[in-house]
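Hello Y.,

Per our agreement to keep a running log of every chain we model this quarter, I'm adding this entry. I've kept the format consistent with earlier entries: sequence first, then predicted structure.
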Amino acid sequence: MPKPPKVPAPFPTKEEVLTFIRESPRPVGAREIARAFHIRGSETRIAFKRLLKEIHGEGAVDRHKGRKLSGRGGLPAVAVIEVSDIDEDGELLARPVVWHGEEAPPTIYVAPERHGTPAIEIGTRLLARLKRSADGAYEALPIRVIAGRPQEIIGIFTAAPRGGTVRSTDRRHKSDFFIAADDALGARTGDLVRAEVAAPHERGQVRAKIVQRLGHAEDPDAISLIAIHSHDIPVEFPQAALAEAAAAGPCPLGTRSDLRTLPLVTIDGPDARDFDDAVFAEPDPASDNRGGWHMVVAIADVGHYVRAGAALDTAAYDRGNSVYFPDRVVPMLPEALSNGLCSLKPGEERACLAVRMTIDRDGNKRSHRFERGLMRSAARLTYEQVEAARYRATDDIPETIAKNVIAPLYGAYDALLAARRRRGTLDLDLPEPKVEFSAPGKIARIQPALRFDSHRLIEEFMIAANVAAAESLEAAGEPAMYRIHDRPDPEKVEALRDFLDGIGYRLPKGQVIQPKSFTGILDQARQHGHTHLVSELVLRTQAQAQYAPENIGHFGLALRRYCHFTSPIRRYADLLVHRALIRGLRLGPDGLRPDDAARFPEWGEHISTTERRAVAAERDAMDRYTVAFMEDKVGTIFPGRITGVTRFGLFVRIEETGAQGLIPMRSLGDDFYIHDEAHHCLVGRRTGRQFTLGDAAAVRLIEAEAVTGGLLFEIAEFAEEAVETGAPRPMHPKTRRFGPVRRGRKDRSRTSKRRR
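Predicted structure for the entry above:
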């Protein structure tokens, strides 16, 4: 036992007590600590007990049997935590904001929000109630988000005699906001509004003031509007930027290369409105490259119209990228450019920045050259048309296009595909859901988007052009805004390896992980029906791609250098690459300015942030569309698959629509379930019943919360009715939730006794 200070203070400081506890070789009790610091007298003892309680409450010490304390460090019952990661099960992990231990803090698992997938993101700080598990980890039940009172909310207004309330569309805001009559801005019940949050009302409700009516909650565009405003996506362009776009005109040929006779074609989805890339291929006539190909990728010359430092440039930088929703696009550039002069429409002359590439029969690039040109698209084709024309004649595509344009494109694609396979790139089979409308705002169906070889063809041409851009910038000594993708975290890879071993797949160990290591596993999974499960698990191990001027390569594509060059209409990163190429290759006056290179690190962080913002908004909108589609299907049984196993329940995806939601632990029948983290499963203590990641499960939809965008499910066999009926259970008229299965008094007593 360490000795007390030689000259003790009249009353010890918190740090002195903490030092004593931490240096003690074993847990010590309050009496031992009091004796060490010569605590005497009733008033002093009361103050001393208060100090010990404060130390324990801050999580600086652990409490043991006999109320003894040790300095190994623990967490208090309520603490501020910060969400730090997502594990392979999709479960949120957090760390304490305050931690005094020298060793790593304990793992904290964050319980999901009640309405399905959590809205909480990495970096969010929470006030949470913590409960320690037997394994030393903690379970956190969020009380509220620590971000101060929100400055602004998006919500649905409900009128009342003296004003009304706004229910936020953000599920993290648990309480409604009070709106005084003078602050309602004429809103009516059901209106979607934007409101500024003020001080709390005298009754305790937080007060807000409506500053904008966005429409009615049932309007066709309400869902995308919620996502746009919730994620602060800029919608309106400054007048100066609109004026610059309106003043732009056609680009003359001048010193540009004349590509107008080259049969370049655009290939996009049927609902695409802007066309920023065109492609062409032909057999290479060179005698020393038999079986090789000459390829051209032409990209809209946005740099000609958007000059560095101009109003258009500032607006494009602020947005960072276009944002795509099922019913609309929020473009990075005004429509006069994005759907006009910078859109490669068939038959219209357009300025372009093109790269000519020569590849051999095995897809290896032999040479490339960039040029500014003037082109005229020969045709606007869709993926479906091109796929059909590859195998048979169609009425949509003239024979000359099918034979002289499409066939050579697939020839070059086959060579590029062979090179891709040799590199061993990471190919994840995770189709995106697509919303189809029968009328504006009326969802006809949600189903996985079809994916053809024509999609992959365009991807391979664009990848080849992006690599050529990165190589040219390095050769010219120009700054490059690389698209980087780091190697996966070794701990996540190890966790994936353990799980794959359990289902019969072997991820190589004892060697540097490569994309081809994952590809081999994915190939096996396709043969055994585990494609989606393994693809999603592999995806969760991957680092997040981002933009940066320092090159670390692109792990997923297995490329040493890679830039984004092919979409300057919708990505500011590509516009920077265009400007760097123009300056480095002396292609005109629209290149980088002398001081721009120093700002590349700052710009890379900004456009990486705006990209994440766009992805979050697009995902949010898709979740809400899915909930809206499922809202009238409450009570229906669906085939699903377990996509996440947590201490709080199961996450499940409906196979038909891709809808995802939560099965709370409390709905998993009359048993106590243990979370087996290593094997990604829940195991019933009494029944031995297991729910494992990837398992198929028939689930019943029990709640669809349209306002906040969340779904709740239950395992169908635990529902009140038999699985075959498909009839919904009656809901409570006020809560609109399903009640528990009613038991007789005798059954309830037995259940309570067993649980005790």
